[in-house]
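As the next step, I needed to go through one protein, both as residues and as discrete backbone shape codes, included below for the reader:
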Amino acid sequence: MSAKIYSTNCDQWALGGKLINMILDMHDAPKIAVRVGNEVSNPTEYLCGVRQGCPALPILFDFNINDIFKNIRGVWVTGLTSRIPGLLFADDAVLLAESSADLQDALNTITEWMDTWEMAVNASKCGIMTISGELTTDMTLQGQKVNSADQYTYLGYIM
């Protein structure tokens, strides 16, 4: 994940101060080296991703990913007063749509969000499951085909 998402969203959330600035500085152009035994490689830039071992950045990631469903139409759920665009747990997401067209629109919105924040999705880990109606085909996410499935495992549960 690009460092720009952290600094942009910290501004959006009105987060600031020395701690946030220190965390962002640590994420801005960090370098890594590899140690094997007593030998240490030359440092190289660490350009993307959540820095391993940094406890603050996964928390910032959780804040940032919360807006991934922004501008997604979603579905009406009985008893609720607003549409539900999907389910989100850490970096696992379920999109909810009422039609194939709505689903592709949602996938396009996710693609735009991912591209904006310089993130990539692995479409082979994604699946489209139709609850009622025709089986959806030819859906794409970040230019990759998303396959249809009769069942799908989400957070350990088979649906």
